Amino acid sequence: MQKATDVTGGSSITTSVPKTLGHDEHGSGEVGLVAQMVSRAQQLYSLPTVAMEVLKLTADEHATVVQIKECIQRDPAMTLKILKVVNSPLFGLSGQVSDLNQALALLGIKPLKLLVLGFSLPKAMLQGIEAEVLAQYWQFALTKAVAAREIANLQGKNFGDEAFIAGLLSEIGALVMLQDLGDAYANFANKVLQEEADLSEMEWETLGFDHNILGCRLLQSWNLPEALVEVIREGSPSSGIEFGRLSGQSVTLRLAHNLAEVLAHHRLNLMPKFLDQLKSTTRHDEDTVEHLVVDIQEKLYQLAGVLSVSLPDGTDYCEVVAQAYVQLSQLAESVAAPLALGDRAPHDQMIQSPEVQRLIDTTKSLAENGGVPVRSAKQGNSEAPAEELPVDPIMADASMLTEIATSMQRCRSQRCEFSLSLLKINQFEDFLMVAGVEEVDVWRQLVAAIVDRLSDGLGRVLPCGEMSVAVLLEDHDRHQTVTLTRQLLDLVTSWSQRRECHHGVELTLSGGVASACVPPKSLPPQEIFQAARRCLLAASKGGGNAIKSIEVL
Prior knowledge:
Number of helices: 24
Strand content: 5-15%
Mean pLDDT: 77
Low-confidence stretches: 1-31, 331-344, 375-392
Helix content: 55-70%
């Protein structure tokens, strides 16, 4: 999904996008802010022992039902929650289930495993968050989870339990942001709700990533099933995958997400999209949707009771749907946008709001402190001046910056990573004197051929001064780019050793890599070039054949 607002113009934010320190190809040092937040969350919020053991047992084909039952029973609170939810209308079982033996017999191992995962959110993740903010979080997450299960049933699918868990875990990244960014993120999210804008879209617009990316990486770090993580990633509209290209549980989760946006976030303008998407996957009419919403609201409060969580007061989803249908009828009579707020779209108003500025300032502080939470934004201009870089001939001209900007734009449109790798010949004057200027041209041609082969045609090589080249790589993250650059350095060195015209002078290179996970519009091409250049200069100080890299947010 391509963003519609350019935040680089006028009075909007241009320099507050956070970035981390560089690190070498072995992964030491600081990495991107997303990785910092995931690393900290993994250290502070590990899955309970019972959940980890259940995962391990269910992955073992020799594990027995008795072993799984005995594992779960070691956590009385978990057992009680499972029995409560199994006996609720969420599962629609006839008769009361009194113990785990019955639950296993009636549900099977997989649904029980998924329930264990769903009820295993670390308690520390929920501490320190204001009650009102936490209530809003639970309202959206539980609405999405229940909607996913009900929509799966409406579609005649048998993966309602999996869809339920995917919906329940899909918003976990928002909890991490609330913990690490505190009031700045809470006020930002509240402003988004007030303006009826899209939270993930605004996160991408201002930060260059969203809570869905953050949550998926955390779930991966917990070694949750990759299929579950993939459904959560694809099911979010922020994945950029069109609805028509989705399949299976991802379709159901996308539908649940859009309906939850209508019901819990009051984004009535999404109702037509939801109805069209639902119609393409199952037969329905207005009565079907109304019955669906009644069931969702009833089971939402039952689930909240099972989990002992509070929801905002006064929520009437039937009234929300009625308002959405009124708006649809008004839309049929008028061409005007149904939720036009003044002369600007909601995200235009959001970009210029103080809540956005404070969020970015706080996120920048978080990055500069190595992922240590900062509860308040820095005041004034207390930052130390940037270190002066030594003068060197590695400079980007206007044509190169245009090429970089074009590649970054394509990556934004396709929701993929962009990386820039700068390569420099070490001791260039000595090499030029022995080998001659013709060999420099041969070297550039060789680099272009190697990059084309290693990147499957996704890389472009551009001259960058006499001794350097720039490699533009689309759909390549930092790790992939560092690996490719390392292979390139080794191949060039091997080639040089066989060239008689080099007369024993070893050709060595240095590499600097800068990467962005879906580069935001607020990231100018000069900034990512300078980031790669700083890494290159640091790598060349070691005598060559070294690579330094940085992830820019």
